[in-house]
Design goal:
The chain is an alpha/beta fold. It has one domain (1-321): Alpha-Beta Barrel (TIM Barrel), CATH 3.20.20. The protein has helices spanning 32-44, 60-71, 96-110, 131-143, 156-163, 186-193, 223-226, 244-255, 264-273, 288-296, 307-317, 319-322, and strands spanning 3-5, 12-14, 18-19, 49-51, 78-83, 117-121, 149-152, 168-174, 196-200, 278-281. It has an eight-stranded parallel beta sheet. Strands 1-2 form a two-stranded antiparallel sheet. The longest helix is centred in the first third of the chain and has 15 residues, at 96-110. The chain starts with a strand and ends with a helix.
């Protein structure tokens, strides 16, 4: 699989990575044996970048990856985790002492002395402009607890604030055919600064697979049931913040763009990979089959130019509601 440099980390990572929120929580139950099958299938398909967080299953996702990595020391993996959502979302909690506490826990969960990449996990907006926060992150790098740091953001303005900081190695942001605003300023600014872009929620929580209908139901412990209106966390994390029924309609239009031999999901992933400045895209998977199919998106020939059609779908269905908000 094609490898790209992940911004200021200097690490080469696969253009299709693996998001592991599903393996921790909030997407229905995933058995441990199924989780290991997903990790193994992704690695065998050439995926070298796993993304996790300390709150996914209260550390379950990190622990599973740690055990997998220990069993496969031959694999050239880069593991990114996230921190900052184990406490109340108060900017006062983003201190060096808390960072040490959180990263020490992640190091234990992942079974490593030095974390490859730690990202602030969509913290409150004021955190992104706090000098002391970046000083604390620089201290963790100097101490050897983390090799690099980045941020995960909800808004483009937060991304731009982080990109302007010299120590920021990467920015993780929602980018997909239903969330185009990062193309305007964030990706160009990241390219200019040498900051990596990790594209998350690439399938709009599954909408862009084209498999869902207006009647599709999700289990009670799936965020696509309980967070449709932002009841638990930012609504942008669920279906990219788009109205579900409108998303189903738009997903049908997008599915019609898939070239022969591509599934709608692979088309959606390949379109993101083709955007200048993207380092890696991190779809999740609940099965080995899904992990393999996602990885295949990196192996197809270049897509025809889908940008005009993608922008037309976005302008028709989502721009008015999405562009001003995130």
């Amino acid at each position: 699989m094609e490898q790209r440099t992940l911004g200021r980390t200097g690490r080469e990572v696969s253009v299709v990575g693996l998001g592991t929120w599903q393996l921790g929580a909030d997407w229905g139950d995933v058995r441990e044996e199924d989780a290991f099958e997903v990790l193994d299938a992704a690695a065998e398909a050439g995926v070298t970048f796993f993304d996790t967080a300390d709150v996914y299953g209260d550390g379950r996702s990190e622990q599973l990856i740690g055990r997998f990595r220990a069993a496969r020391p031959d694999l050239p993996l880069t593991v990114a985790t996230k921190m900052g959502r184990r406490e109340a979302q108060d900017p006062a909690n983003f201190t060096l002492a808390k960072f040490r506490e959180w990263t020490d826990r992640s190091r234990r969960n992942l079974g490593v002395d030095t974390l490859d990449l730690v990202q602030l996990h969509c913290p409150p907006t004021p955190v992104f402009s706090n000098d002391a926060v970046y000083d604390a992150l620089d201290t963790l790098v100097a101490d050897g607890a983390i090799a690099n740091y980045g941020v995960s953001v909800e808004t483009c303005d937060e991304a731009l604030a982080a990109i302007a900081r010299p120590g920021t190695a990467s920015v993780q942001i929602i980018l997909n055919a239903f969330r185009l605003k990062p193309l305007d300023q964030v990706l160009p600014a990241a390219r200019a600064a040498g900051v990596g872009i990790i594209a998350r929620v690439p399938l709009a929580s599954g909408l862009l697979t084209g498999r869902y209908t207006e009647q599709t139901e999700f289990s009670a412990d799936d965020h696509r049931s309980y967070n449709r209106h932002g009841e638990a966390f930012d609504v942008g994390e669920t279906f990219s913040g788009v109205d579900y029924a409108e998303g189903v309609l738009a997903a049908r239009e997008f599915a019609a763009l898939a070239p022969e031999g591509f599934t709608p999901a692979q088309t959606a992933l390949a379109w993101i990979i083709a955007q200048p400045g993207v380092s890696t895209v991190i779809p999740g998977a609940r099965s080995a089959e899904q992990a393999r199919a996602n990885a295949e998106a990196a192996r197809f020939p270049h897509l025809p130019d889908l940008d005009p059609a993608v922008h037309a779908i976005y302008d028709t269905h989502f721009r008015a509601a999405i562009h001003p908000r995130w």
